[in-house]
Fold this sequence. Notes:
The structure is a single chain. The protein is α+β, with helices and mostly antiparallel strands. The chain has two domains: 2-100 and 271-338, D-Maltodextrin-Binding Protein, domain 2 (3-Layer(aba) Sandwich), CATH 3.40.190.10; 104-264 and 343-385, 3-Layer(aba) Sandwich (D-Maltodextrin-Binding Protein, domain 2). The chain contains 18 helices and twelve strands. It has helices at residues 2-16, 27-40, 54-59, 67-71, 75-80, 82-87, 110-115, 127-137, 156-168, 187-198, 223-226, 239-245, 283-293, 296-306, 319-322, 325-332, 346-361, 367-385; strands spanning 46-50, 89-90, 93-94, 97-98, 101-109, 139-141, 144-147, 231-235, 251-254, 266-270, 272-276, 337-338. Strands 5, 8, 9, 10 and 12 form a five-stranded mixed sheet that branches. Strands 1-11-4 form a three-stranded antiparallel sheet. Helix 9 crosses helix 10 (187-198), helix 9 (156-168) crosses helix 17 and helix 17 runs antiparallel to helix 18 (367-385). The chain is globular and about 65 Å long. The two termini are 38 Å apart. The model has no long low-confidence stretch (mean pLDDT 94).
Amino acid sequence: MKLVKETIVPAFEKETGTDVEVTYVDWTQLSPKLNAAFAAGTAPDVFGHGIAATADLVKNDRIVDLTPYVDKLAAADRDDLKVALTGGRVNGKQYIMPIVATVRLLVYSGKDFKDAGLNPDQPPKTWEEVKAAADKLTQRSGGKISRAGLIMPSDAIGAQQTFATLMWSNGGELLSSDGSKATLTTPEAVAALEYQASLYGGAAAVDNTLGGTWNTAPQAQQPIATGKASMQFAGAGDIKKFQTAAPDRDLRLMPPVGFGSNKPQTFGGAANGLMINKDSAKQDLGWKFIQYMIDAQTGLKYAEALGVLPVRTSAINAPYVTADPEITKAVAALQYAHGNPNVPGWVQMRDALGKQIEQVLHGKVDASQALTQANAEVDKTIAASS
Length: 386
């Protein structure tokens, strides 16, 4: 916030002779406040939101098609922003310009690996190997896990992102290629959810955080930093914060893994971005501001201040990235990033899927039954959103 208000905005104002008013809104209040502002005709010219909100805003004709603006960018810029641009499209058109990227990777403790007789310089390369390592890393006391070998987010959204990562890494998909139907009942999807559930249940459990909300806590309080876990699925951009919080843990990033011979894939890609209000009388000026935010140097400063990943491919050569081998790994992993579908009704689909996944993780239903129910609910949402 300090960088935007005291550096980026003043520089843009000086360069363009424009007055810019920036308002920050709590994330949970963003959509309700935007909807109220749209209804009142007071919505901002440019606003930020998550990728997941884009398709519904398009469906309701609330945002500007940015494709004509993007087409005027230099070819080198479009190529440099290719990963981000792909993540911001709906029906082949650009509606949101991502300004940060994300990728979820396994953070692991080199110290714990060494103590367990594992080589921290040769981490697992498949999910099967990850589970085998987690078995060795898990410590128990009195029949209960005292140190988890591997922990994954188990809240509804986090569990959905984890499931999607496992499924994509197993060759599955959430929706058909044209987005017309759910594809959650495939063997690849069922096997992925069974693997996810196996982390929590029975004598072979390696994760004792089911139902916890550790992923929203400060990095210093998260299990991988406190020593309560040896591997943790987390935002790769947080690695420097983890390392600062727990320097004695020798925390590192594991490159993306796949199931068997399947290509590694992981949740990520374009994250939050900027859109232009369809009712704005200053759309061209709004684009100038967006263009300023995606400038190579501005974008890099913004990503570094947030401790996240920049959207440009060329950033892999920037000092912010090259100064830390773990950040270099994170940026390199963006090539394996896979985002959720950018389709109308996705938030409702995600929530329905998340609830079914939670049922499986808590042992209330089996994976096949839950995914059959989720498949039906997602198909209903697709039909209603068509």
